[in-house]
């Protein structure tokens, strides 16, 4: 029996050593599991802080309508035939711009026909239909001006026709010297409509030679049906003496 005692002691030592190693490993696992759990909780907490800000972010106040499919005039040179190339809006900044307190997307312009250009036999559209909007909003903002000679105060030179998704429509009239001015700032002028301001002034080679600059107006119309979605907008000339043009349109 005595000769078996060392073997048993050796076995007990090995078992004790193995148990110790298993205990150390088990303790290490617990530490790593604890660290992993804390890291997981930290990630979850971060996501809970960040995601609500992203998912609950309020919609942008201004929706700049894309007019690129309908523009018929560039800004860097004259958009009218047989005109001085320096008669342009090249100094107007392009892209998303805040003008007159409203964010617009400036890319080009839509020039409509008027009697001034009929007499010169310029071929221009009397209307542009179906400008896509697909938005509801309380206000319709436009960046625009007149070209050609001016009409008497209050003359309707153009109309915006709002087409709602329910088939109804509304009409917003643009009147000379109330809502719009000639883009040649050949004399100081202020629109009589309180919702219209001169939103941008600049210069062109053609006007600089004559000692004045160029300008654009921002007009704000209240949408008669703010809860309805505007599907499309038509821009229609009244075929008055002057010829209006539209640079940008934004829904608020």
| Secondary structure tally: strands | 13
- Give the quaternary arrangement of the chains: single chain
Secondary structure class reads alpha+beta
Q: Give the count of structural domains.
A: 2
Summarize the amount of helix as a percent range. Answer: 10-25%
In percent terms, what proportion of residues is strand?
A: 25-35%
Number of helices: 3
* Order of H and E elements: HEEEEHEEEEEEHEEE
Task: Please outline the major beta sheet.
Answer: 7 strands, antiparallel
Uncertain stretches: none
**What would you call the shape?**
globular
In round numbers, the mean pLDDT is 87
User: Roughly how many Å apart are the termini?
Assistant: 99 Å
The whole-angstrom Rg is: 35 Å
What key phrases describe this protein's structure?
single chain, 252 residues, alpha+beta, 7-stranded antiparallel β-sheet, 4-stranded antiparallel β-sheet, 3 helices, 13 strands, 33% strand
Describe the protein's architecture and organization.
By secondary structure, the chain is of the alpha+beta class. The protein has 2 domains: 2-55; 63-251. The protein is built from 3 helices and 13 strands, in the order αββββαββββββαβββ. The chain has helices spanning 5-55, 115-118, 205-208; strands at residues 63-64, 95-99, 102-106, 110-111, 127-135, 139-147, 156-164, 169-175, 184-185, 196-202, 213-222, 230-237, 243-251. Strands 1, 4, 6, 9, 10, 11 and 13 form a 7-stranded antiparallel beta sheet that branches. The chain has a 4-stranded antiparallel beta sheet with strand order 5-12-7-8, with no helix packed on it. Strand 2 (95-99) and strand 3 form a beta hairpin. The longest helix has 51 residues, at 5-55. The protein is globular and about 75 Å long.
């Amino acid at each position: 029996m005595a000769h078996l005692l060392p073997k048993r002691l050796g076995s007990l030592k090995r078992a004790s050593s193995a148990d110790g190693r298993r205990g150390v490993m088990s303790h290490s696992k617990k530490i790593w599991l604890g660290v992993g759990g804390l890291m997981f909780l930290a990630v979850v907490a971060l996501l809970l802080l960040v995601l609500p800000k992203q998912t609950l972010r309020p919609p942008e106040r201004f929706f700049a309508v894309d007019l690129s499919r309908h523009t018929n005039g560039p800004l860097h040179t004259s958009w009218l035939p047989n005109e001085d190339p320096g008669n342009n809006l090249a100094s107007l900044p392009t892209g998303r711009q805040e003008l007159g307190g409203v964010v617009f997307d400036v890319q080009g312009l839509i020039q409509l026909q008027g009697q001034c250009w009929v007499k010169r036999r310029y071929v221009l559209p009397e209307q542009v239909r179906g400008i896509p909007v697909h938005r509801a909003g309380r206000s319709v903002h436009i960046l625009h001006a007149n070209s050609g000679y001016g009409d008497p105060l209050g003359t309707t030179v153009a109309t915006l026709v709002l087409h709602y998704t329910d088939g109804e429509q509304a009409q917003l009239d643009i009147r000379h010297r109330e809502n719009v001015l000639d883009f040649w700032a050949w004399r100081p002028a202020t629109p009589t409509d309180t919702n219209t301001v001169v939103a941008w002034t600049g210069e062109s080679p053609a006007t600089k030679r004559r000692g004045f600059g160029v300008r654009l107006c921002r007009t704000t119309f209240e949408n008669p049906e703010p809860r309805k979605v505007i599907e499309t907008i038509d821009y229609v000339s009244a075929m008055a003496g002057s010829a209006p043009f539209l640079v940008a349109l934004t829904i608020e």
